Amino acid sequence: MAAPLTLLLIVAVTIRAVLFRSSLAELISARVEVVSPLNAWKRVVEGLALLDLGVSPYSGDVFHEVTDGITALALYLSIQTYNKDVFRKQKYALESDRYSADCLELLRSPKEMFYIPLKVAMFYLLNPFTILSCVAKSTCGLNNAIIALFIFCTLKGSALLSGILLALATYQSIYPLTLFAPALLFFLQRLYIPVNLRRSSFWFFTLQYAFMYVGSLVVITGLSFFLLGSWDFIPSVYGFIFSVPDLTPNIGLFWYFFAEMFEHFRLFFSCVFQINVFFYTIPLSIKLKEHPVFLIFMQIAIISIFKSYPTVGDVALYMAFLPAWSHLYRFLRNIFLVSCVLLACSALFPVLWHLWIYAGSANSNFYYAITLLFNFGQILLVADYFYAYLRREHHLTHGLYLKKKDGTEATLVLK
Amino acid sequence: MGLLSDPNRRKALTGLLTRLNTPICIVCYLAGIVWFMGLAFEPFTLRTYMSENAMGSTMVEERFSSGERALSLAKEFDAHKRKAGGMPVEWLVKAMQSRGLEVFTQSFSRKLPFPDENKERYMVRGTNVYGILRAPRAPRTEALVITAPCSPGNTNNQAVALLLALAQYFRNQIYWAKDIIFLVNEHDLIGTQAWLEGYHHTNITGMEYSPLQGRAGSIQAALSLELSSDVITSLDLVLEGLNGQLPNLDLANLFYAFCQKLGVLCTIQGKLQRNDWDTAEGYTHAAQTMMLMVLKQACGRSWGDHGLFLRYHIEAASVRGINSFRHYKTDATTIGRLLEGMVRKLNNLLERLHQSYFFYLLPSLSRFVSIGYYMPAFGLLAVILLLRVSFPGLCHCFSVSLQPSSPGVLTVLTPVVISHLTGVALYLLPVHLQEMAVEHFPVSETEAVVLTAIAIYTAGLALPHNTQRLLSGEGTEQGWKVLKLTALLYLAVLLGCTALINFSLGFILAVTLVPITASITPHMPKALYAVVMVLLSPAFTILYCVFIYQELIEAPVSVSEGWMLFLSVISQGILDHALYGSLVYPLLALFIYPCWLMFWNILFWN
């Protein structure tokens, strides 16, 4: 499997190198869908800080291509580990007769799962969104790399490294904080500690992991203070993320609302919007506590839809996971509609931007309509995969052909 | 979300779509055409009205009276133009300075990618002369532009002279709140492009120009004047700009209001408005006017010097004086008064014109069709593509192609890549290979470029027979269905985006492309269908538009003349793209033609 992966990496690097050298590079780095104030601004702060030490990490294209390569490699290895895990669990479940008799066609075979890690890497590297992010020199590539490494370390079972990488990801933008819950659930499952609030073993491990995570976060923050010499960066960076002062249009939901509302209500609506990102962790963790890796996918998707300054690079990260759930295809109901919506919106973003800013014939409502439609498509995609996953689990335990009490065929509806 | 999650309702809907798919498609197509033609019918249109409050009532009295002086100035300008053999820069500078303007010049040069045979130029060098009339008591933040082109020969002398006379008259008034720039540009659109790029500090077309020494603030509106005779019978308004962009409708309303006030005959597309909308001739007249506007908008050229201003969000229109055989003649003083009135109204603007429509069609000057009324015509055509896409046979093959085991996606990839590479060749090669073509064949550069483009276009038709051999054993039923699905979605998105920016172009392409692409399968009679496909391909669409345009302007051409016109249209399209950034040629070469090639591939799927 190394040869196809190497070929894939070479193709990906070539595409990016060609685009970097072409005249499209400046055009792409000016697009609001690809670069947000957060990605560009932070670069200034951190780059300046490290520049004082004589290191300039954000110059040049090689840096961004390398981060993309690291992300792809980390995802490849994570999905390989995950597949081995899944297959092992399936074997145990079959041996202990936990599956019903007629769901043999739902079981996964190694042959079907063989190419999935390569497809995941391909989905990430050859995704036009990732290529655009890389060519625009957005720091989104670095965020994605750290989250991918975090997933890799979690799946390999190393709690300390996972805590450190999660702290790094949280340090860059607060939202990966919500990934603490799925990582914790994964470790608990791996160490066979039942998720029961009355058991002391649960609290013991939770505190250990939390200590590692919070400790790394404190160390990193302290290091920043030491480098910059003041605590100013905390309100500037995290305050910026939470209070959303910059209303440049992007593919997210915040800018239009906050441009319309009165100052008096700004705090209230900021709180409502930010709680929306963090809130879904609790019900999703309760429902998906047996399936932490799927929970990680859902969390990353929710972060990239509801965060304050999303870009297409964030979308590319959770889309890379989709081949891992290709066995759910038969239960997906709206995949065609969703792909058409996402494709059409991606094409319409630059058109309506042009009509608004350059031709002056449209206004912000048109651009926001496409933003809303794009986010609707993403939410529908995530909800569809959630439904398909739960439905497959239901069929595995209750049989594929469901019968109502009087013997007629039943249909399963998510209400 | 009942429809999306309830399986029973979904089954009912998909059943309906399966049974009635073809009848619905045919009905939609006919409905779209009928809707579009019905737009010219007067009861379906709205009367134009002034939307901007600041330009409300026309209560001022125009007092311009130097029409005769302007005409004698025209003769002087003509003499100096002949003596200088181009633009009489010193004379213009002195004339403007003596009228109290701040005068500046800008020199520019541009080498065209290949010689322009219509205007007979290749290496263009020129000078623009402009004078700024500073507003006496206002801060210098906004400006208006009045421009007249300096054309070779006998044309537009009166326009420049009227410009100077207006400048002298305006200088003596105290009510100006904005600076007024009087621009005389050389080499029509190239000069205007150089001036605009210099004014806005951009360089999007590779023009070389000297930087502007004097500037006046953000330009709110511009008027271009073309006048070639001492008396006129009517004034024609030209609105279509680059890439089919139109100025705000308020500008057209302003022109119409002043023509009514001063009793000047005004036309649009050269046609006078008729009152008998309920007769067949009346309707055809309005339909012809509207079709002319659609054709002019679709070709993406700027039909007057004003067209390049629109890109910078400056509302601009061209006023053209026409001298034909009518009894009632209008003299230069009245034209001067009309322009004075319009500029005084524009002077009152508090903000840029934005209240009225930016997207409209004009069957006559006093009636308009807004985007809300004409977009459903395009929508009905686009719906056909979406109905075809959701045709269950195709939908099923989409699901099969996403299964991990089938090779669906890869079979589609090869025709798509090859079609797009052909499109890139069609875009890049004609201009780059012209020297080689001129060496080997006895043609001029322009002919070389155009004939290379046609050759590459025709060579693309031979492709299906070769790509099929490259894909060994991929001639499955599934393969062409996946390709058709992809191509239909691609065409739908492409036409949608085109119609948003330039409705006329999107509609014309939809009318010719949608019927063949929706109904194409490899199982049809290949020879007949191939002929039909070629006859409805983008190149032939351009040819038909040329013939229809000539019919509509009442100058019908024979087949050979039409063919020469067609070749010149292609060369103008390529030049417009290189000189001014028109998007029609890249759109057709890089996107529409590859899409059409993908359908051609489906027809010849073995």
From TrEMBL, chain A:
Keyword Transmembrane helix attached: yes
PANTHER family the UniProt entry points to: GPI TRANSAMIDASE COMPONENT PIG-U, PHOSPHATIDYLINOSITOL GLYCAN ANCHOR BIOSYNTHESIS CLASS U PROTEIN
Pathway(s) annotated for this protein in UniProt: Glycolipid biosynthesis; glycosylphosphatidylinositol-anchor biosynthesis
Annotated TM spans: 114-135, 147-168, 174-193, 205-231, 237-258, 265-282, 294-322, 334-359, 365-387
Keyword flag Transmembrane helix: yes
InterPro entries for the chain: PIG-U
Residues spanning the signal sequence: 1-25
GO cellular component: GPI-anchor transamidase complex
Similarity comment: Belongs to the PIGU family.
GO biological process: attachment of GPI anchor to protein; GPI anchor biosynthetic process
Top-level lineage group: Eukaryota
Keyword tags: Endoplasmic reticulum, GPI-anchor biosynthesis, Membrane, Signal, Transmembrane, Transmembrane helix
Pfam families: PIG-U
Protein name: Phosphatidylinositol glycan anchor biosynthesis, class U
Topology in membrane: Multi-pass membrane protein
Places the protein is found: Endoplasmic reticulum membrane
From TrEMBL, chain B:
A GO CC term attached to the entry: GPI-anchor transamidase complex
Localization, UniProt: Endoplasmic reticulum membrane
Keyword Nucleotide-binding attached: no
Transmembrane segments annotated in the record for this chain: 20-41, 371-389, 409-429, 449-467, 487-516, 528-550, 587-605
Pathway participation: Glycolipid biosynthesis; glycosylphosphatidylinositol-anchor biosynthesis
Membrane topology per record: Multi-pass membrane protein
Membrane among keywords: yes
Keywords: Disulfide bond, Endoplasmic reticulum, Glycoprotein, GPI-anchor biosynthesis, Membrane, Transmembrane, Transmembrane helix
UniProt main location, coarse: endoplasmic reticulum
BP GO annotations: attachment of GPI anchor to protein; GPI anchor biosynthetic process
Position of the signal peptide: none
Subunit structure: Heteropentamer. Part of the GPI-anchor transamidase complex, consisting of PIGK, PIGT, PIGS, PIGU and GAA1. Interacts with PIGK.
Its job: Component of the glycosylphosphatidylinositol-anchor (GPI-anchor) transamidase (GPI-T) complex that catalyzes the formation of the linkage between a proprotein and a GPI-anchor and participates in GPI anchored protein biosynthesis. Binds GPI-anchor.
Name of the protein described by the UniProt record: GPI-anchor transamidase component GPAA1
Organism of origin: Cyprinus carpio carpio
